[in-house]
Amino acid sequence: MRPLTLGRLLLRCTILGLILFVVVVIALKLGAVQVSLYGLGRDLIRVLLHQSAGISTDYGVIVVDIRLPRILLAVVVGASLSVAGTSFQALLRNPLADPYVLGISSGAAVGSIIALMVENQLSISPEFAGLITPFGAFIGAAVTIAAVYFLGRRDGQMESTTLLLGGIITASFLSAIIMFLMSTLSGSNLRGASYWMMGSLSSLPPSSLLYFIGIGFIIAAGAIYTTSSDLNLLLAGEKEAMHLGVDVPRVRIVVYLAASILTGLAVSVSGAIGYVGLLVPHAMRMIFGSDHRMLIPASALGGAIALVIADTLARTVVAPSELPVGAVTAMVGAPFFIYLLRRRLA
Amino acid sequence: MSTPLRTPMPNSSSDQPRGNPDVRLSVEQASYVYAANPSQAPLFTLEALSFQAKPGDIVSVLGPNASGKSTLLNLISGALAPLSGRVFLNGFATHDLPPKVRAQRIALVQQESRLLFPSRVWEFILQGRHAHGHGLRFESEDDATIANNALAQVGASHLADRWMDKISGGEKQRVILARALAQQPLLLLLDEPTLHLDIGAQVDLLESLRRLAAENRYTVIVVTHELNLTGEYADQVVLLQKGKCLRVGPPATVFQRDLLEHVFQAPLTVEMTSSGRPRVTLFNKE
Hints:
Structural class of chain B: alpha/beta
Oligomer: heterodimer
Mean pLDDT of chain B: 83
Structural class of chain A: mainly alpha
Strand content of chain A: under 5%
CATH class of chain B: Alpha Beta
Order of helices and strands of chain A: HHHHHEEHHHHHHHHH
């Protein structure tokens, strides 16, 4: 018997953190413009010491002003999507649940687009205007997950197949809505349909929004983490969890809202990047087991690592052009989904 | 056919602990109604029934399918609020207890639960300590000791490192019982615990229940339709049929041939063994 201890939890998180750091450094180095590790280290220290003026080279600008923010965005989005995926799998008691597969990301995308339209109509000061998109995305995610939840319920029971079919149909319906909104709104400052449907990290949000997303992630993921011990029991079923002392309605509402916030935040700055929330939690479960006290931080770090790698591939494989990062994650994620599905049916 | 035994205590809406300290569980005129919606005729009614149980008692809730056994169990566990009447555990109404407190006092052994992701036996047992923890609930040394003892009490210590989905039905049933013991409850509820067990495992389980009830002073409620196991192991029988409580009492008084034939719709004989326990034999209808 080896119950999880705080020491072991922190040790594992530190290891994952170091891997993330290495991946980030490599990602900074790779790209259309080659950067030496020495130059990279020197410039990073200058940035940390607020001596950016010392960076005179062209690639310094590329690394600090273009690659670094994009990588940080990938870190936050990857972590958000993975934690959201882990939470949805526990909340819906379905190992195949993922914000993208269930259409929740598409719902958040529709919410974002409508929020952008509203934002253009209203004259709000630019500081607040930026926050309307993530809020719209949150509402879109929350409404979609509620709809999918009720579609997946039959006779008061969650049915796995119905839930997945309901989610896939919802996703398809919402994609049609995105196409409709995109074609009726030509010429505005909205990004293209492929951005919303496939996801991309190529257009950087303003730095104030980046901070907001980071703080939002910490709050929402923290809220989910407080329920991690309850989620372990919820996997066995709501009735059983209740008899083991879980306040099921409270846990359900906390996880539902926080996971919607995470999905909304991620989608509002990167579109609907698929399968991160499916792949990463399963990979982490294979390594660390299914205890959510370990799984949630591991998923956050693992999701960050995975999306930084995926985005680095997206911008380097076909350089100087680039792929949407969602295409990279889907190429890996969709076959993995089939694998999980077949293993479940077996 | 006699009327169910009535408790001398009057109905009371008071939440205060009270009453006879010898009585741990007191079901007082509790009833329940299932209906598809309030305007329609009820689908199922559990008529008001009463009984009491002391620490160390094994009470068997006996009846055929659809007799209201599970409904009664849900009322006792606090999962359902009685439509009328109350269920008191040490003087507290079970439905009004917060989930955490309830789990510290009442443990439920349900029919085998399906696991979403594989877990080790020891992880499963530690779930029973959840209600005793705080915050993120990293398990303490005490929790591990209690979990180990619980496994030892059901004779399953050797299973600790096995995967839950790789052990047999009888082993799983013992592990589920051990998780309930790890909750250190006052009241142990078992829903058809012998359903998927072979006869040897059934006897094992009931022997350990009797020993545990005596050693740890649990009050044990077992829902079952196993006549002979009830006759052999129960201190008290609550006999249900179609939502009515027909009789409450020790097996020797409840096990009467015409009554059981009527309830279970099968011809049978009842004989007393030398130990004073009734034994039921079924025979062909022809």
